[in-house]
Amino acid sequence: MGQRDHIITINKPRKKPYWMSVDDYQAAPDTLNIRELKAGGKIMVTTIMSPKVATKDELKRLYKSRWNVELDIKGY
Fold this sequence. Notes:
By secondary structure, the protein is α+β, with helices and mostly antiparallel strands. The protein has one domain (6-74). 33% of the residues lie in helices and 26% in strands. It has two helices and three strands. The chain has a three-stranded antiparallel sheet with strand order 1-2-3, with helices on one face. It is flat and about 35 Å long. The termini are far apart.
């Protein structure tokens, strides 16, 4: 893990959210581990745990390209 990276564990809510189907709630895992990191002045969250698989710079580039795609789609 990089400096100031950390893993957060999110627990599934005990009660199903009103907007979620029963099947989806039952299929959801009891916990979800996510990696929180700071890159390019932004706090990012990912389920890619290994910095060897996705470095901060790679995640920053992915975020930037995703943002440009969203802006392109919004123009339609």
